[in-house]
Specification:
CATH superfamily: membrane protein fhac: a member of the omp85/tpsb transporter family
Helix content: 10-25%
Number of strands: 19
Number of helices: 3
């Protein structure tokens, strides 16, 4: 029933929305955002399964023309960095390059007992890595005043598995084999943007479609593609505010299943779960189960984290078919521009915003049942919108597993 209500609501708004909004004029001219802004601040981090420490966050918008640069340095239990630079012009004002590199000496991800929505909050273990690297590039072409934006995104990911920890971060078992995983993913997509402003839309419609094809070095992994559709409708509210509706769908389509032989996959990781007892054996078997299902079904976009279902941690729910609905009221209570310089941050404020939001997401390995059950998030947030394109966002979201706080520089529900 909930699936029907959400779908009917979204379709009704799209059907009755003024079609002239597709041709709405831009509030700000395209390719005309050259205001310099920056943020430099220390921060404290604490990641479950890994540890804690300090980091330095640096972000510079429109350093040269429209080029942005971001660098995070981490020290403590995790040592490493995150670097990204976007909107590097390649040809006049139409073709732009983005590059990124992440390198950590340590990382841990939660592995829940089941894929889909049926796992319990505390029913997880950690998979610990002692090396994690990601690097890639993206090329975008901006056409028709930034209304149509085709792109290609290529990235490489490397991880070296070290051990399995229980939920209390105690060692369960070490991976005895040299478990290094490498993959190269190619993403091809297009954005149709019929809004009044690319950075901070208040009126119009945006549709992003993209296909991702991962290529694994490990022959035990499956061959599959992930098809994604991300549609967002912006409806004016009062004089300067906006009501936003979002629909997202992600589906993994497997052309060749990976290795489904349990004994062989266990041997690949160097795991002897039968030698363990009690909860340790359960945690070990959980990792094998997750890999076997990933080999059979592939992986679609996850739910949980700063983008979708914000009351849950990142990658809380996984599977091969994802469906998501979101609604957000963005009330701009200050709309006059003001130049500010607080030492650690400088920009031109264009608006101060309060947001109220509601989200519902479904994920499963059976495409016929996606949408039968949903997990929900709701909450409120504060945003500082800047002329440089930086949107500093603080959200507090609640759900049936508690609350999560998001602090980041972007709107939710974004694509690639």
């Amino acid at each position: 029933m909930k699936k029907f209500v959400f779908t009917a609501l979204l379709m009704s708004v799209f059907l009755y929305a003024d079609l002239s909004s597709l041709l709405v004029e831009r509030r700000n001219p395209p390719n005309n955002n050259d205001n310099f802004g920056y943020l430099v601040t220390p921060a404290y981090y604490q990641f479950p399964g890994v540890g804690s420490g300090g980091m330095l966050i640096t972000a510079f918008n429109n350093v040269v023309s429209e080029v942005d640069a971001f660098v995070f340095f981490l020290a403590g239990d995790i040592e490493g960095y995150i670097f990204a630079s976007t909107d590097i012009p390649l040809y006049y004002e139409n073709l732009y390059l983005g590059v990124a590199k992440t390198s950590f000496n340590k990382l841990a991800v939660k592995n829940y007992s089941k894929r889909g929505l049926d796992s319990k909050k505390d029913d997880f273990s950690f998979v610990e890595m002692n090396k994690y690297d990601v690097q890639g590039f993206r090329i975008r072409y901006y056409a028709l005043e930034d209304r149509i934006i085709p792109y290609i995104y290529v990235y490489e990911e490397f991880q070296r598995l070290k051990s399995i920890l229980d939920k209390d971060e105690n060692l369960v078992v070490d991976f005895t084999n040299d478990n290094e995983s490498e993959q190269t993913s190619v993403v091809v997509g297009n954005i149709f943007d019929f809004t009044d402003d690319y950075v901070d839309p208040r009126l119009g419609f945006r549709l992003e479609t993209y296909v991702e094809r991962p290529f694994f070095k490990d022959s035990n992994r499956p061959d599959y593609m992930v098809f994604n559709e991300n549609a967002t409708l912006y409806l004016p509210f009062l004089d300067y505010s906006t009501f936003v509706l979002n629909f997202f769908r992600s589906d993994a389509v497997v052309s060749k299943e990976g290795n489904l032989n349990r004994a062989q996959v266990a041997d690949q990781f160097g795991l002897d779960c039968d030698s363990l007892e009690g909860d340790d054996k359960v945690d070990c078997e959980r990792v094998l189960d997750d890999n076997l299902k990933a080999n059979k079904y592939g992986d679609s976009a996850y739910l949980g984290g700063r983008q979708r279902l914000r009351s849950y941690p990142r990658s809380r729910f996984t599977g091969s078919h994802t469906q998501f609905f979101g609604a957000e009221l963005r009330y701009n209570f200050v709309t006059n521009e003001e130049d500010y310089n607080w030492g650690f941050v400088r920009d031109i404020r264009t608006s101060l915003q309060i947001a109220l939001f509601y989200e519902a997401g479904s994920i499963t390995d059976d495409w016929t049942t996606v949408g039968d059950e949903y997990k929900e998030s709701y909450g409120a947030g504060f945003r500082l919108v800047n002329r440089s394109g930086a949107i500093y966002r603080l959200d507090v979201a609640s759900g049936d597993e508690g609350s999560e706080v998001t602090v980041i520089a972007d709107y939710p529900w974004q694509g690639i």
